[in-house]
Specification:
It is a single chain. Helix content is 37%, strand content 24%. By secondary structure, the protein is α/β, with parallel strands linked by helices. The chain folds into four domains: 128 residues, Rossmann fold, CATH 3.40.50; 128 residues, Response regulator (Rossmann fold, 3-Layer(aba) Sandwich); 90 residues, PAS domain (Beta-Lactamase); 169 residues, Alpha-Beta Plaits. It is elongated and about 100 Å long. 36% of the residues are buried.
Amino acid sequence: MSSKLLLVEPSATMRYVLENYAQSLGFEVVAIGAYNEAEEALHQQYRSYGGEFSGVLFGWPIVPDDSADALILKLENPEFSDLPVIVMSTDMRAETRAWVAGREHTAVLRWKEYQAVDELLQKLLQSPKNDQDTFTTKFDNADINVLIVDDSVSIRFALRDLFELQGYKVSVASGHDEAIAAARQSSFDIAVLDFYLQDGTGDALCKKLIADPNTGNVACAILTGTYADHIIKRSLRAGAVECMFKNESSELLLARIDALSRFVRQRKQLGIEQRRLDELVDTLAGATMVIGADDTIIYASQQASSLLGFDNRSSLLGLGSAQVVDINKIKSSSAGKFRAQWRDAAQGLVSVVYRQMLLDEKNDIVLNFKLLPGVVEPKVPVGTQTIQSANDVVAAVKLPQSSMPFVAALNAYPASLSDSTESVSLLLIDTFVAEGNGDMQPTTQFADLPNVIEAALKNVYKRENHVAHLGENRYGFILRHTTEPQAYLLTRKIMQICNAIETQNKSLRISCTGCLCGVSKNKAKSTAQLIRLTMQGLDVVNQRGKNQALLLDLRRMLPVYASK
């Protein structure tokens, strides 16, 4: 019995030429002009004895075609993975070659060279064992994890196969929501985002990926079919590091991905070198911090963070130095060795001995220190106020332990801002959800919402340890401002952003209430008293209804939103 071939080609002329030539080689040919009919023929081939196809002659579409995409997907199914396919192409486009390169037992042939079908068929119809090394990966890019986001089936799978042939680890997503979910589940180095997606735009997706702490390290490249300036500008402003174009050659596309890969590898190498530097500093110099010209901590070794009770060095970076050290004493002293009492992560006082030196031309201060035996009691008079340790405050107000860094930061402000023109306020908000027009319920009724809300709020106000989830449906902010109207505007803005947070369940709507209390105006109160006072105000607001705020530091009730 002769081998049976399935020939699919919309052009009647090309179909006639190839059908006659294949028959002259001794093959039985089923010639079809429509891609959807070819897909059905593949599906039905096992229904009758002797109906199985030995191979497919596939006339690749000249323009995008949904039915052709469906046939492509059919041929990628595991049940057809061993079926030999010869792709007949007129222009040998990048996506054509990419699909051929990524599928086993597949070859591509220009239509004008159709008589080479004989040789290719003989090769492809051999045992798969003889052909298993034909398409092996020859590139070592397995350290780079790529996410491709495109709502076109043919494009995303063509790119996937093209990149996989170069050795990259590749995942695909069809749209905005699917991409966000994939990025949160896996760590991607590069994301290739189509600009026009059915459920959004690539620049908006790029912004969201970069802003999310769980996905922010990804390098985004926008893929677009146009060279329009406004598309490129929007993409670069959103944080994309590259713009790629769908009509450029596969070689140029791969060159761009290779360049991004070098950037990713360099960034990873810098991270490794930074960790080595930290280990070297810990070994040779011990606990070390560097205070920048703006009085923030710009470097801290791992040993420094450990001695001061911080979970990791990143918890110290960006922190106001006055929350840890006696910055006024340090700035008034020259290089030398000193004893002092500093504050640890829980805002308890610890005795240290330290050396300080000033870096030339930068006004950065290097502190190398070690702890002295014994710890001063955690409650120490400062002015008219008694400062409790963060641990005592958390226990007194019954806050979760995870809020300790937030309470420690709040604890340090009354003393650190005593001579400053800047003001500080404590904002507490409660969040609720309503389905449709139903009654409000605390967001804790929906397991995924607290983490989503916390991540969104921390992205709004990025100062370290100034935003915290205080348990249940309550969140805290430490706001720094110069005038009272600024505090009001910040509160309004935060509540508006909270209301705009997107949920997986599109029928859910988030609302909130808030209470703002001035820290600077209530220096006589302890941190625990201040938090309790703000909580009492929040209870009053909750009785008034959603989207209302009480501003205690203005000494009057002022709704952020008009009552409905």
